[in-house]
C-alpha cells in the first residue's frame, strides 16, 4: 500500500481553493510556517492541527484522505466496512500513542458521525484542545479514558459516558496501561 502524501494533498486542496499558504494559515488560525512545513513534508501535523487547517478549507478528514470515496446508502455495516479516518496520521513512534477512529457509513449524508474509537496506552488527542461547531457524546466500552471539557476533567471507565458542546475546548487521553474503546457520535460531523 502506498504511503499517503499529506503535504501534497494539502497543497493540492489549497491551490484548488485559490489560497496562498499565508491566506490558508490566516483562515485556519495557524502560523504560516506550519502550512509550509506540512506541504513540504518537513513536519507531520497532529490530528488537531490538521483538523484546524482543514477547517480553513471547509473540509473534513474524510474528504481529505478519501476524496474519491463514493459510498452507497445502506443501513448495515460490518467491522470491515468502517472507514479508518486516522490510522494514516500516526506511526508506531508517535509519542502520543496510537488513536484509531473508524466511521460508520456516510456521516455527511446523515449529518451524524458515529465513530468506533480506540486509544492505546499513552494516546492523546494533543495538548492543543479540540474545538469545533458540533455536539458530541460517547460511551466508554472498555478501558478508561481521561476526558477534559473546558475546565472539567474526569477519568471515565467502561459504562461511563459524556455529552457536551464541542465548541468547548476538549481533549481525550488514555492515561492507563491498557487500550480504551469508545463509541461516539457527533453532529454535525466533524472529521
Automatic annotation (TrEMBL):
Keyword Isomerase on entry: no
Keywords from the named record: DNA-binding
Family annotation (InterPro entries): Cro/C1-type_HTH, Cupin_2, Lambda_DNA-bd_dom_sf, RmlC-like_jellyroll, RmlC_Cupin_sf, TransReg_Diox_bact_type
PROSITE patterns in the record: HTH_CROC1
Xref: SMART domains: HTH_XRE
Organism superkingdom: Bacteria
GO CC, any one term: cytosol
GO MF annotations in UniProt: DNA binding; DNA-binding transcription factor activity
Ranges of residues in domain HTH cro/C1-type: 10-64
CDD domains recorded: cupin_XRE_C (cd02209), HTH_XRE (cd00093)
Pfam families hit by this protein: Cupin_2 (PF07883), HTH_3 (PF01381)
Protein name listed in UniProt: XRE family transcriptional regulator
Organism listed in the record: Paracoccus tegillarcae
Amino acid at each position: 500500500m502506498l504511503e499517503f502524501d499529506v503535504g501534497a494533498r494539502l497543497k493540492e486542496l489549497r491551490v484548488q481553493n485559490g489560497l496562498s499558504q499565508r491566506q490558508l494559515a490566516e483562515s485556519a488560525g495557524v502560523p504560516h510556517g506550519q502550512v509550509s512545513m506540512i506541504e513540504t513534508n518537513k513536519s507531520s501535523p497532529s490530528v488537531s492541527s490538521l483538523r484546524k487547517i482543514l477547517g480553513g478549507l471547509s473540509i473534513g478528514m474524510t474528504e481529505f484522505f478519501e476524496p474519491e470515496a463514493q459510498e452507497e446508502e445502506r443501513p448495515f455495516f460490518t467491522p470491515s466496512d468502517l472507514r479508518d479516518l486516522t490510522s494514516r496520521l500516526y506511526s508506531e513512534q508517535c509519542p502520543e500513542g496510537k488513536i484509531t477512529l473508524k466511521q460508520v457509513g456516510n456521516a455527511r449524508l446523515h449529518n451524524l458521525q458515529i465513530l468506533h474509537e480506540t486509544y492505546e496506552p499513552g494516546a492523546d488527542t494533543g495538548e492543543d484542545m479540540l474545538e469545533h461547531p458540533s455536539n458530541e457524546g460517547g460511551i466508554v466500552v472498555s478501558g478508561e479514558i481521561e476526558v477534559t471539557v473546558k475546565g472539567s476533567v474526569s477519568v471515565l471507565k467502561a459504562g461511563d459516558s459524556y455529552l457536551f458542546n464541542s465548541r468547548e475546548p476538549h481533549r481525550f487521553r488514555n492515561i492507563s496501561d491498557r487500550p480504551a474503546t469508545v463509541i461516539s457520535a457527533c453532529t454535525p460531523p466533524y472529521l
